[in-house]
Amino acid sequence: MKKTVFFIALLLLTAYSLHAQDLQLTRNGQISFFSSTPVEDIKASNNEVSSVLNTKTGSLQFVVLIKGFQFRKAAMQDHFNRKEYLDSDKFPKSEFKGTVSDISKVNFKKDGTYPVTVEGNLTLHGVSNKIKVPGTITVKAGKISAASKFTIKLADYNITVPAIVSSKIAESVEITVNCNYEPYQPKS
Asked: Quick one: signal sequence residues (predicted)?
C-alpha cells in the first residue's frame, strides 16, 4: 500500500513538473478523526498522508490510505475497515482535490499564520462531495505547514451505521488535518 501512495504522489508531482519551484510536498502528513456519543468516543489517526501544495496557484491535493488509520482498540480498527463501514478493500483510499481559494493572502516569504479557505472535492467511500472548509497556512523560518478542522456527515458518503451500534457511532465526524511540507526537489 505504501508503494501505491508513493506512486500516486509521484503522478501528482509529474503533473506539476512545470512549476516545481512552487511545489511543496509531504508523505507523512496527519489526518485524524473523532466522533463522540454518550456511549463511546471513537478516534483514529493516519500519519502516512501524501499531499502536494502549489504555493503559486493554490492547488492542493491529498491522498490517504484507509487501512492506515490506527485506533487504540484493535476491534475498532477491524470494524472500521469492514464492508459494513468503510469497506477499505473496495475503497482503499480517500482523496481531496481542490484549491486554497485565497492563496494570495499568504506571504510565503514572511513568517506568520494565515487563515485560508480550502475548496474542492473530497472523495470517501467512492462518493465525491464538494466541501469548503477553513484552514491555516503557517510559514516559519521558510517552512510551510497547513492545518484544518472540519466536520463531515457519514450519510453524505453513503456510510451507514448499523442500527445495533447506532448509539456508539455518531452521524458526524470531526476531521483534523496537519501537514508539514518540504519543497519538492526534482531528481536530476
From this structure: 1-20
Lowest mean pLDDT among 37-51, 133-147, 152-166: 152-166
Q: What angle do CA 146, 55, 150 make, to 5 degrees?
A: 30
CA–CA separation, 122 vs 138, rounded Å? 23
Report the predicted TM-score, pTM, of the whole model to 2 decimal places: 0.85
Grid coordinates representing 25 are 510536498
Q: Which is nearest to 119 in space by CA: 138, 135, 108, 137?
A: 135
Estimate to the nearest angstrom the gap between the alpha carbon of 175 and the chain centroid.
8
Q: Which of 52, 66, 51, 60 lies closest to 1, judged by CA?
A: 66
pLDDT, mean of residues 5-15: 53
130 has a pLDDT exceeding 80: yes
Average pLDDT over residues 56-77: 94
Three-state SS at 32: strand
Neighbour-count burial of 26, counting CB atoms closer than 10 A to its CB (0-12 exposed, 13-18 middle, 19+ buried): buried
Least confident piece of the model among 10-14, 61-65, 119-123, 144-148: 10-14
Q: Where are the alpha helices (DSSP H) in 59-164?
A: 74-81
CATH 2.40.128.110 fits 2-16+23-183, yes or no: yes
Domain boundaries of the chain, sorted by first residue = 2-16+23-183
| Distance, CA of 124 to CA of 88 (rounded, Å) | 10
